[in-house]
């Protein structure tokens, strides 16, 4: 099979296209013939050496993907050869991920994909959708379903990013009034396409006033991508008892809190990382995300606010460079 590998950390030029034997699934594993691999910042950072996740002599990157079950290992139940699936944490704690024609992984990380959902959508779930789900369930709402966020206001900081897009779509499906912040007209159009009820351009307007206009009593939950720089805005628009769920360090590595306003507002700060979620949190996220996919509530493409950038497997280095360069939308490797 064709696969992308690297044997040392570094720039995208360390990625090589090679031929490797088709792997056999082990006990409790499935083998999947990939249609698409999703590229995320975590893949780029791991390859570059900024994030250490296991030490292997050779690595095929890619946590996310979608394709067809090709073979079953011993003891696998609930899946069959020919099933369409989306994958998450495919390369977690093992050397070989989804930037290859085939991948083997624990069966629980291969999730049935409805016939109506394309493989592009399946490959775009994983990291963004599960991260968004955990952020949204960091406050008073433990599960996402239609109506579970009824009467609540959710602020999504960075509404044009992949996680932001998933958070907007999931929160709207759950009944929230969704406010998104963006930095340009182009990104504002994408956030609206994703389903945001209100969009605030923080780069050219008074962001706090814009958010307060949409949520006069404050927002109940904030999905935060840049806590170091956005915390003054978060505190200005949060209602008492709100949760700030942060999943990245865009804009800086140090979050400084003014103690009195923080405890006066009764704020809760919840950090989250996909790789350290509890098994129950992952299972809940997968179940809720799958329900949203089945309901048609999660979509990809320009009309869903998430433009797709497709690269052939041989151009995986260019795909990594696109993510590293801040490509707006979702970068996919087409197998």
TrEMBL record:
CDD domains: zeta_crystallin
Pfam families, alphabetized: ADH_N, ADH_zinc_N
SUPFAM superfamilies reported in the protein's UniProt record: GroES-like (SSF50129), NAD(P)-binding Rossmann-fold domains (SSF51735)
Domain Enoyl reductase (ER): 10-333
Keywords carried by this UniProt record: NADP
Top-level taxon of the source organism: Bacteria
Listed PANTHER family: QUINONE OXIDOREDUCTASE
Protein name, entry field: NADPH:quinone reductase
Organism: Gryllotalpicola protaetiae
């Amino acid at each position: 099979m064709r696969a992308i590998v690297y044997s040392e950390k570094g720039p995208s030029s360390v990625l090589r296209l090679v031929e490797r034997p088709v792997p056999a699934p082990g006990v409790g594993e499935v083998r999947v013939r990939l249609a698409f691999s999703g590229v995320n910042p975590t893949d780029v950072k791991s390859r570059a050496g900024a994030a250490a996740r296991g030490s292997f002599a050779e690595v095929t990157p890619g946590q996310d993907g979608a394709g067809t079950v090709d073979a079953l290992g011993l003891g696998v139940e609930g899946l069959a050869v020919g099933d369409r699936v989306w994958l998450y944490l495919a390369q977690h704690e093992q050397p070989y991920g989804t930037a290859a024609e085939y991948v083997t992984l624990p069966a629980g990380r291969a999730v049935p994909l409805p016939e109506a959902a394309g493989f592009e959508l399946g490959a775009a779930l994983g990291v963004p959708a599960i991260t968004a789900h955990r952020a949204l369930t960091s406050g008073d709402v433990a599960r996402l379903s239609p109506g579970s966020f009824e009467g609540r206001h959710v602020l999504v900081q960075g509404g044009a990013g992949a996680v932001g897009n998933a958070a907007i779509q999931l929160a709207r499906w759950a009944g929230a009034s969704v406010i998104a912040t963006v930095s340009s007209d182009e990104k504002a159009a994408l956030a609206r396409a994703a389903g945001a009820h209100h969009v605030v351009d923080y780069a050219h307007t008074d962001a706090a006033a814009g958010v307060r206009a949409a949520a006069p009593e404050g927002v109940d939950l904030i999905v935060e991508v840049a806590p170091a720089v956005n915390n003054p805005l978060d505190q200005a628009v949060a209602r008492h008892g709100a949760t700030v769920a942060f999943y990245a360090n865009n804009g800086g590595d140090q979050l400084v809190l003014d103690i009195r306003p923080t405890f006066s507002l009764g704020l809760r700060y919840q950090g989250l990382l996909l790789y350290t979620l509890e098994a129950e949190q992952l299972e809940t996220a997968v179940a809720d995300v799958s329900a949203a996919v089945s309901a048609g509530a999660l979509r990809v493409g320009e009309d869903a606010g998430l433009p797709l950038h497709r690269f052939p497997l041989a151009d995986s280095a260019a795909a990594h460079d696109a993510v590293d360069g801040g490509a707006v939308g979702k970068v996919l490797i087409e197998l």
